[in-house]
């Protein structure tokens, strides 16, 4: 299925029996965690990207808020928002997405506060609304992840052998935050990875996995966020031919 975002007037694609569909946006970190969860669980699925400024009428019927992510099942069931979707995917059987569910759920809940300023920008706040503490907040967030990895002594956030749900939830947020260092270098200073060895190793490890390789191209993400923040343009098809 095309990665291009569907907008008002587009027809709703047919959902095959026995398949789930994730309504997404390529640069949305909350949609990304759901995409990664579906891949990790090997759930048959398709992805339909939505133009979040000009949503198709049929999408607004599925979710009147007009936001993503949204999961649709072939029986008509609709699940809205990233963590309820993740829990639904977790209940589909097979190996758990979690290494230590209670710990990871708490960590993911805490991650709502991680990179808050950068998430505000992605959700439409103006760069002028941010305080001069934004860079400090970003560095504190990165320090927290470095400290967590050192304490756990693991390659990924909660285990060594492969990523788990905490990695899938936090990595897209971190990627967004890193991209904004390139978009707003005068406001958000990049972290020196030489002083954050565990964090650097974690990012490299995630990027090298089959899941990390499916994530959106970093340069497309930077270009999208730059046009969004600087010009208030929403080029949902950034980087696509």
In short:
With 241 residues, the chain is an alpha+beta fold.
Please characterize this protein's 3D structure.
- The chain is an alpha+beta fold and 241 residues long.
- It folds into 2 domains: 2-91, Glutaredoxin (3-Layer(aba) Sandwich); 101-231, Glutathione S-transferase Yfyf (Class Pi), Chain A, domain 2, CATH 1.20.1050.
- 45% of the residues lie in helices and 7% in strands.
- The protein has 9 helices and 4 strands, in the order βαβαββααααααα.
- It has helices spanning 29-41, 57-62, 82-90, 101-110, 116-122, 134-152, 165-183, 197-208, 218-231; strands at residues 20-24, 45-49, 70-73, 78-80.
- The protein has a 4-stranded mixed β-sheet.
- Strand 1 (20-24), helix 1 (29-41) and strand 2 (45-49) form a beta-alpha-beta unit.
- Helix 7 (165-183) packs across helix 9.
- The longest helix has 19 residues, at 134-152.
- The radius of gyration is 18 Å and the shape is globular.
- The two termini are 14 Å apart.
- The mean pLDDT is 89.
- Belongs to the GST superfamily. Omega family.
- GO terms for molecular function: glutathione dehydrogenase (ascorbate) activity; glutathione transferase activity.
- Residues 18-97 form the GST N-terminal domain.
- InterPro entries: Glutathione-S-Trfase_C_sf, Glutathione_S-Trfase, Glutathione_S-Trfase_N, GST_omega, GST_Omega/HSP26, Thioredoxin-like_sf.
- Keywords: Transferase.
